[in-house]
Write a structure and sequence with these properties.
The structure holds two protein chains of two kinds. Chain A is α/β, with parallel strands linked by helices. Chain A folds into two domains: 32-375, Rossmann fold, CATH 3.40.50; 380-418, no CATH class. Chain A is built from 16 helices and eight strands. In chain A, the strands form two sheets. In chain A, strands 2-1-3-4-8-7 form a six-stranded parallel sheet, with helices on both faces. Chain A is globular, with a radius of gyration of 23 Å. Chain B is of the alpha/beta class. Helix content of chain B is 38%, strand content 18%. Chain B contains 14 helices and 15 strands. In chain B, the strands form three sheets. Chain B has an eight-stranded mixed sheet with strand order 4-1-3-5-6-8-7-13, sandwiched between helices. In chain B, helix 10 links the parallel strand 11 and strand 12 (257-261). The longest helix of chain B has 16 residues, at 10-25. Chain B is globular and about 60 Å long. Classes of the chains: A alpha/beta, B alpha/beta. The interface between A and B is large, with 38 and 36 residues. Chain A: This is Pyruvate dehydrogenase E1 component subunit alpha. Chain A: Keywords: Oxidoreductase, Pyruvate, Thiamine pyrophosphate. Chain A: It catalyses: N(6)-[(R)-lipoyl]-L-lysyl-[protein] + pyruvate + H(+) = N(6)-[(R)-S(8)-acetyldihydrolipoyl]-L-lysyl-[protein] + CO2. Chain A: GO terms for molecular function: pyruvate dehydrogenase (acetyl-transferring) activity.
Amino acid sequence: MTPRLSSCSRTGGAGADRLAAFRPSRGPQRPTRAARQVFAKAVATPTKEASTSASKSASISSETAKELYRDMVLGREFEEMCAQMYYRGKMFGFVHLYSGQEAVSTGVIKACLRKDDYISSTYRDHVHALSKGISARKIMSELFGKKTGTCRGQGGSMHMFDAEYGLLGGYAFIGEGIPVGLGAAFTSAYKRRVLGDDGADQVAVNFFGDGTCNVGQFYESLNMASLYKLPCIFVVENNRWAIGMNHLRATGSTLGDEEPWIHKKGPAFGMPGVHVDGMDVLAVREAALEAVARARRGEGPTLIEAETYRFRGHSLADPDELRSREEKEHYAARDPIPQLRAYMLKHGLASETDLAELHASVAAEVDDCVEYADASPKPDMSQLLENVFADPKGFGIAPDGRYRYELPGFTAGTAEVS
Amino acid sequence: MQFLARASAASLRRSQAATEAFQRLGACGYATTQLTVRDALNSALDEEMERDDKVFIIGEEVGEYQGAYKITRGLLQKYGAKRAGFTGIAVGSAFQGLKPVVEFMTFNFSMQAIDQIVNSAAKHHYMSAGQITCPIVFRGPNGPAAGVAAQHSQDFAPWYASVPGLKVIVPYDAEDNRGLLKAAIRDPDPVVFLENEIMYGESFEVSEEVLDKDFVLPIGKAKIQREGTDLTIVASGKLVGFALQAAAELDKDGVSVEVVNLRSIKPLDRETIAASVKKTHRLLTVEEGWPQHGLGSEIIAVVVEEAFDDLDAPPERVCGVEIPMPYATPLEDAALPHVSDIVRVARRMFNLE
């Protein structure tokens, strides 16, 4: 039986030792001054320009740049295809697109995470899944409600899961995914500190928006992550709007500021708070590399506020009437994809031909995933009653004494299960 | 989170509001008129805010966005906005005598605040021996919607109806929505008002009486939506419509169906249900929620207690399948009750198959 932390605090003995592994360090082990510092970067001027003009040379290799560029273009093209498919009735319900925010997904997930790391996402989860390495075919099939999807068509756009790739879930509820991600980070730390698995250095990254930062789970999770120094990274994708509610109208300003800075809430809980230009994939990558390295070293969590923007409405059902034209134009001019493109060309990291090839390969991949999803079979009716319980005996016993899952209609989805 | 509240100098706006409301409703000079469920709710909120300056609306996107489903359209422009933090604040303000109307974007999200609804709102009157009252309405869309899968598609009526101290309303048509929401706002106790997003755009004929500013329906009273002699179908909300369609279909088989529109789930109108079954001798319950410990279970219990000897056949339930709602359309379809299911089960009760 796996020992549980909750019982440890009461029983003492070996249990107390397990708890000690999570006890916050005090006294001489206090975090250094540097670790507690707030790494704020001005966002009004793109940080990339400042950092690169100083060095005059590229901060990344050609191979990495191409990988990041392709991931962002794939995210954009995939989402634009989703819009087309939604309007053609191929997907249904609510579909929330990520266009404009690619630098965050790519800069954190693609650039810094391994396959065995964890991410928790929101209803805006397609591109996080792509960056994590899940195939476009599986994701598009899920959106089409097909058997070949990440969840065999049972989860859909807002509830995407993939255990193999550490995608803990798209969570449709605001804040719901944060404690779940925290639990994954706790598991990683538990394996390392209690079960003695030195290889367990997986980190968990929680993605959520500015609106979520006014929800209780956010603060509760910051506290626990800091208290137990968990390998957890909180990434706020601050796109300034929670559906039609502007961040500035929803959140009280931090003391002495005009703006309600979210990253400043990190130090209040004992972790670094980093402010980064979320339209600049290299800046995001830089901040995320540092945070992930800290987490892997066992030095605890980081809060990253990435200032970004969604180029479309909240969902495809949102008329998007409240955001001004000026604001949209301001952020459109800072589109992360052309920014990286210009950077790559300027620093000789890729040629026009290379980039054209990347675009062509993305277009082919997106077309392929649509064809694949369209041709895929619909879910079998057997799925209707499967997986409600890990043990199907959970459906109970039928009047004839057999378990209900043994009834002939169970696999056809027609058995009476209650 | 936002809230809308009335400012001062209301008398001028009061007359303007009445005029506007009636223009919007198209009520002038007609005995009956068409009214959508959305306008029924909007006008009820509007009039009750006019009537009582302690009434205010609080929720997500109820202001500039005018409600995720546009139920609060125009109210921000009329009453102005103040901002605040949400269910807990609303409950706390109700304890101090305000009358909040909490809009949940959907009732799925009320799970985030259920402690405040169940442990705070529902119980304080009792715990404080009547010192604290909680005149609050929790409203918003409930029940399965289309294509939004497990977390956004479920029926919370049985959840809230099992809690002492709460009143639970599930309105069906424009008349129900208007009359019962106004009653809920005027009620001194916490009321959970479960709408259905699929019904918002539906239009119903209403009489001039329904459009009266003081039209309220009694909470706890069911309505015989259709009279019949052979079978009682008990339903609520959207499924009243399903029951009516099934009744028309069963008419062709010579089965005369009486449809009981519950309107209130709690308090439950036991008398109307029992009286109907005593007349028809057969009971079929219809709901979108899950079967175990559901509305149907409770209604059948009522009939067993009140009219057991009058039953000519075992009561039957038509409900949602007991699984989290799947996303893919064919699975979603198979998980929910349809008119054809009601007809099929009803026929079975008469050995017509």
